[in-house]
# Entry
Amino acid sequence: MGAVLSQKGHLIAYFSKPFTKKLLTASTYVRELFAITSTVKKWRQYLLGHPFTIITNHRSLKDLLTQVIQTPEQYMYLACLMGFDYQIQYRSGAHNQAADALSRSPEYSASTFLILSVPYLTFLEELRHQLATHQQYCRQRQDILDSPATYPDFTIN
# Structure
């Protein structure tokens, strides 16, 4: 299975992992559900409290939230997704190339398969923008820059 985490068109992380022997014999529907729940668990810290979209190449999962749950496996997997604010969209494998490529990667042993994931955090950029328009902060900052001896407990880096 393979998954890509992105935000505003920027890739944040990749996740790829082979299925167990038991899952290899399971239906495609169950494998896709497993892939979705495993990925959401892996990236839980990024997703909790934020709406997100799951894009899958399995058409029947598009209606996961509105279809009748018929098997214990469905209950188990859907319980893992409770508490998250998500929607599911279908995108064919040809248009979902990054995740599709990851799911078809050759198997490597754990010691040779390295994954680098670098979060793209927007918090500091947003904070800088907010502070740049905050009058009291701008005044205080300028006072410190003009006479640093008056403010010995403050430095600006």
